[in-house]
Amino acid sequence: MAHSKVLPLVFLSWFLFLQSTHQLPNSQTQDLYQLRKHLEFPKALESWGSYYGDLCQIPATAHMSISCEGNSITELKVMGDKLLKPFGMFDGSSLPNRTLSEAFLIDSFVTTLTRLSSLRVLSLVSLGIFGELPAKIHRLYSLESLDLSSNYLFGSVPPDISRLVKLQSLMLDGNYFNGSVPDTLDSLTNLTVLSLKNNRFNGPFPSSICRIGRLTNLALSHNEISGKLPDLSKLEHLHMLDLRENHLDSELPVMPKRLVTVLLSKNSFSGEIPRHLGGLSQLQHLDLSFNHLTGTPSRFLFSLPSISYLDLASNKLSGKLPFNLTCGGKLGFVDLSNNRLIGTPPHCLAGSSGERVVKLGGNCLSINISYDQHQEFSCEEAETERKQLQGRKIGTLIAVISGAVLVLALVAIGLVLLCTKRSCCCCCSRGKSVPQTRLKILTDNSHTSLSSEVLASARLISQTAKLGAQGVPSCRSFSYEELKEATVDFHSSRFLGEGSLGKLYRGTLENGSFIAVRCLVLSRKFSSKSIKSHVDWMSKLNHPHLLSLLGHCTQTSGEHDHAATILYLVYEYMPKGTYREHLSESCSEKILTWPDRLAILIEIAKAVHFLHTGVMPGSFNNHLKTNNILLDEHKIAKLSDYGVSAIIEENEKLETKSETNSKSKKLAKREDDVYNFGFILLESLIGPLPTTKGEAFLLNELTSFGSQDGRQKIVSPTVLTTSSQESLAIAISIANKCVLLEPSARPSFEDVLWNLQYAAQMQSAADAERKSDTSP
Fold it and tell me: Is the pTM of this model over 0.85?
């Protein structure tokens, strides 16, 4: 009995002891509050002001978390809201509403940080931190992960960062670092993730990176790195390589065998695509577009066991693809456009289908839809000229080499004769040994030079001969006259609709291709430089489920209240119209089944996830609606008007007062992409939202999803008859979380995408079971 009374007291004492031993020392608490002051009290840290307990125990949010072990802070993550980057260069000065104020001193800030010497994870993202990163950052010697992305850090990365020997992940994306990438990074032997995207790094590719044996992810895209890309085969654990938009101009090197993703577009790589890429059995995503690659693509590229995305557009690829070429079962996207290919495409590339998107425009292929193909003789002439020029260059080079070898041979013979003559007066053995040795050296050197340096020069001249005008760019400037002719002077018969993002027209270009033209009326204060920056950003986005931006045109108009700038955005035309049109029960010939709707939702979720995480700066408020999802002739979905919201928001800032701005910012903060996607999911379940009813109607309908009877009443009959209970329940759960939860508690788009794919798997399993039950 006495035992039972003592036991609870022991547990209570033990608990209180643990609490006391894990109490954060006052000095570290003060350091945290000092950091909050340095960062000028960001919204992510608002909860600190009203929290009076141990900061180690403060609940984590989507934008802030603290972890402690013992009486030390081991993890600090803060995500700010300064996401908008200035277009163009950053001069290092404070920018209102984008960086911290002029009072911010990065040296003092880092000094305070280094007092938290037990930190293992430090993430300070989108906080407006600006200045040159001090070398004293190396004092955080316990760091295993450092993320300072999306700030305004500039200058060189301090070499002392290589003293953080425990570092496993280094992310400095989206800053303004310049100079060379430090060539001492091989000291970071534990490093697995190195991401320096979207900076101003220049100079050669650092050879030290090739010696970081544990590296799995390497991203240096959107910089100004130039020269040769070295042999990467020693990076045996590398899964992801992203070097897009640099100035690398060598042949493609030997690649590691475990690569899953290779992104090398928009460089100046030359030569043929090496055959060793056929050994990359795990490769899923290969983008070599917008380079100077030549030759005929080998069949192995298309039949890699894991390949799903292959982009070879805008190179100098030529010749005929093998007619019996086979495509891998997972290959879903192929782009060979704007090359010099001839002949008939193989069967598996004959055109887009429900399971594969294929782009072949801008070649000389014999296909049914030939309006976007050149005449075959033009590709053959270009190839013939290239070969003739290459032959002349190599012939000249061989003549020079032959002449040099002949001269060397004559010199060698002369030396032999001279030494033979002298041997009559000198010791025979000594006189003969010297010229024989010298002759051997000359011959060996000549041979070595011919086999390496000279032949390397021959390759260089050969590749130089192959250079010419690059392929037609995917985005170009249109003249106003072209667009007037295409749309019949913007005639009402070509009018497709009007929304908050401007009027939309259908057009036909001179070559017969169909286009859609979005007309945006902008303030006269909207600068042409800013327009160019927005359009350049949109034109760089390359995703199979984003509507392709073909070009733009600007025109000054006086028809409005004040002189305004009209921005015309030219897109590819989608013949099947909007997703919304295919959700109504009143159009039985158009209506989509639930599996079709799920497939479209997954495609759009992939596109939005790409906009959030695959580009810098990311696009997080894309005004997602069922009207902005368009379907092509194969009912493949593409998201339209992405990026346009940023133009509209900037235009509104130029025209409205600050009070209106602050109000719209609060609204935008609640109505983010996840929230709006939840409503798209709801409309997919119950049908298109009536124009007379708003979001409140849909929110009210959500309450009926709780019971089976409620679902029977409001879910679209087509959805009910073509869906499984499991996939329907998952979709309803996602919609609830996207719409009803507070912004900080909503799922990420990655979570949304995962759950949709899981719902599709459940649906596929149910369909297969239903089919087996009905089969005789």
Answer: no
